[in-house]
Amino acid sequence: MTALMRRRAMMAAKEQGGGGLPDAFQQVEWISPAAGNQPYINTGIIANAAEYHMTAKYLNTKFEDAYGLGARLGDGSNTQCCFFGRYKANSEWAWGDWFYGPGASQEDIHIADAVFQNGSQVITVDGTTRTYSRTGDFNGTLPFFVFCRNQGNGNIGMHAHGMRYYYLQMRLDGVLVRDYIPCYRKSDGEIGMYDFVSNRFFTNAGSGTFEKGNDV
Fold first, then answer.
1. Residue 21: pLDDT above 50?
2. Rounded to an integer, what is the distance from CA 149 to the centroid of its chain?
């Protein structure tokens, strides 16, 4: 079994409720920002690496100008490293800017795997792969936010209203740093994402609330 096959088998087990969540939490199909709100998750992972490898299953937002995961450089410039979502009539940017899957239309569910590094970007969405050769390092000072772009100074941008995450994995320089599954805390119903790397429950760091899918 290849590494990709093992990863897909593990993700399938999690989606079926075999992810091994602590008893205090209930896995759900997905989480999404509630309409009219701007909730997001602060991953705590600084966008400062030679290689970024992000894997996710998600329902794309129907709105343009939206990112599912992103951060600006943090130096006051507009340079940014962002993944998943929609921007400007399906424009495709490979590095330091924006990711949009080949053939990925609005409000479709996609499985995406993106590896970005200086001079080499490989993006696979639903089994279709594209390669780019955008050059330039991205050594930022801000952490990635889920469902938006971290602008810095407490600000966010490009909020992904209506987007749903079924799972999200983040690797920096080949190391798995976040392995998120959507869930809620049974004691109070708080919705968020549980990370199997840090064994932590990440809740809303923004305004409003999340919505959730059915229990898994």
1. yes
2. 11
Alpha-carbon distance 106 to 85, whole Å? 9
Q: Which tokens belong to 174? A: 């080949």
Q: What is the pLDDT of residue 112?
A: 86
Rg (CA), the chain: 16
Q: What is the pTM of this model?
A: 0.85
Which one, of 146, 182, 165, lies nearest residue 19 by Cα? Answer: 182
Q: What is the largest CA-CA distance in the chain?
A: 48
Q: Give the HSE-up count for residue 106: Cα atoms under 13 Å, Cβ half-sphere.
A: 15
How far apart (Å, rounded) are the C-alpha atoms in residues 136 and 139?
10
Query: Residues 6 or more apart from 59 whose CB is under 8 A from it?
Result: 30, 32, 107, 108, 109, 110, 162, 163, 164, 166
d(CA 196, CA 171) in angstroms, rounded, equals 13
Domains of the chain and CATH, by start: 3-212 (2.60.120)
CA dist., res. 151 & res. 161, Å (int): 17
